[in-house]
Amino acid sequence: MSNIRLVIFTVAFTFAANCAFGRTESSPPIVVAYVFPKNEVLLPGQIDLANLNRINYAFANIKDGRIVTGFAQDEANLAFLATLRKQHPSLKVLVSVGGWLWSGGFSDVSLTMQSRKQFIESVMEFLTDHDLDGLDIDWEYPGMPGAGHPFRSEDRHNFTLLLKEFRIRFNQRAHKTGRQMYLTIAAGSSDEYVAHTELSKVQRYVDTVNLMTYDYYEPGSGTITGHHAPLFTNPADPAKSSADSSVLAFEHAGVPASKILLGVPFYGHMWGQVADTQHGLYQPGVKIPNAYAPYSLIETTMLDHGFTRYWDPVASVPYLYNAEQHTFVSYEDSQSLAAKCTYVLSHKLGGVMFWEYSADPSGMLLGVINQSLRRRRARETTK
């Protein structure tokens, strides 16, 4: 190999390697928000851009093997975010494609080299047209039916190939423009997800793994109540689930801690017909109307309004119980978020991501995250 070719190869390899990275020891944890306005128009001042590192705008869809907008106001909202980013140059705006209901096209688009190429080309056009910084793939889930989607055993490897080919194209684009292109995934927190993916290979091609460490318990998916976002495993939990156990499983599967973003929910789940035993925790319950409760609703209509707050010191999360209504609520609050941020720092994770911004319009929860991550980190670095 000639000296010129060696230099070119070295530069190209170094550039490619630097385009897929996690948090370094000296850099602070990042904060990523999923923004899901559906058909609503985003308004000035609605999003606290100064306290975010990255926005994942949800959701784009897949149609005829190509990425497409999902909602009526997406074009306007993406243009709005691109304009706001000029005021905050460090902020990155990605589009998230898929989600629980719109993951039906992933198995097909990842199936062959040609189908992957078509999908990737459409994404490159989409990112250019909307002046975006990258793509978040929310495939729920490779090799599994999710919400009844088509799936194949080949999904496990094809998912890896799709991400690899995206990374190649992103690195090529970044080499030409000098602008880093971000590639991330939203990952299920279950052992089943780990078994149906090649995480040790996948992690090579993505900047972060947005680990959805919530919805461990959901009304209607089981017969009992439980913490839907526990930090640690409570031995009394029949499912033995927790964010900690999921993080350890991902690390064991080959994902560096620095690439893992700990997912936290800005919402709660509600169960009805729950007996007043252990204040409703791990008790039989049923799904009730409006069982999905944004934090803003919990804060204004439940706390001190017939619901009593309890704290699980083992799982490190709160829960509510209304003895008169026999209603149990699992949710996240400032105390549990502070504990999770301490966990992120002590385990040297890449940061925090949350679903979803509009669930806490007051910004209280985001403020707790930033205060816990940034101030504690600052104290550590001055010691």
CATH topology, which one?
A: TIM Barrel
The Cα radius of gyration reads 21 Å
**Share of residues in strands:** 15-25%
Question: What summary fits the major beta sheet?
Answer: 8 strands, parallel, barrel
User: What would you call the structural class?
Assistant: alpha/beta
Whole-number total of structural domains: 1
CATH architectural arrangement: Alpha-Beta Barrel
The number of helical segments is 11
Report how far apart the termini are: 48 Å
Shape: globular
Biggest sheet strand line-up? 1-2-4-5-6-7-8-14
- Looking at this structure, what is the CATH superfamily? Glycosidases
Helix content: 25-40%
Protein model, in words:
This protein has 383 residues and is of the alpha/beta class. It has one domain (3-265, 332-382): Glycosidases (TIM Barrel). The protein has 11 helices and 14 strands. The strands form 2 sheets. The protein has an 8-stranded parallel beta barrel, surrounded by 5 helices. The chain has a 5-stranded antiparallel sheet with strand order 10-9-13-12-11. Helix 4 (113-129) crosses helix 5 (155-177) and helix 10 packs parallel to helix 11.
What layout of secondary structure does this protein have?
Layout (H helix, E strand, L loop, with lengths): L2 H16 L11 E6 L18 E10 L2 E3 L5 H12 L6 E7 L7 H4 L3 H17 L4 E5 L16 H23 L4 E7 L2 H5 L3 H7 L2 E5 L30 H10 L7 E6 L1 E6 L13 E9 H7 L6 E5 L4 E6 L4 E4 L3 H13 L4 E5 L8 H19 L1
Parallel strand pairs: 1-2, 1-14, 2-4, 4-5, 5-6, 6-7, 7-8, 8-14
Antiparallel strand pairs: 2-3, 9-10, 9-13, 11-12, 12-13
Helix pairs in contact: 4-5, 5-7, 10-11
